[in-house]
Amino acid sequence: MLKILQHFWSFVLHPSDRKLIAYHSDTYSKVFSTLFLFKVLILAIILPLQYLVQYLDPVFTKKSDTDEQAIFYMISAVVFAPLIEEFIFRYFLKYKRYYRFVISHNTYRKNYRWLLYSSVFLYGLAHLFNFENANLLFYFLGVLLVSSNLVDGLVFSFIRVRLGFVYSWAFYGIWNLFIFSLIGTIILLKNPVTKIHNDNIDLEINVSQFRDTTQALFFVRENSDSLFNLNVRQYPLSQVIDSLYGPNRYQVDDEYIDIEMRSAKGYSKDSLMNLLKEDFTIEPNIP
Question: Superkingdom of this entry's organism (predicted)?
Answer without folding.
Answer: Bacteria
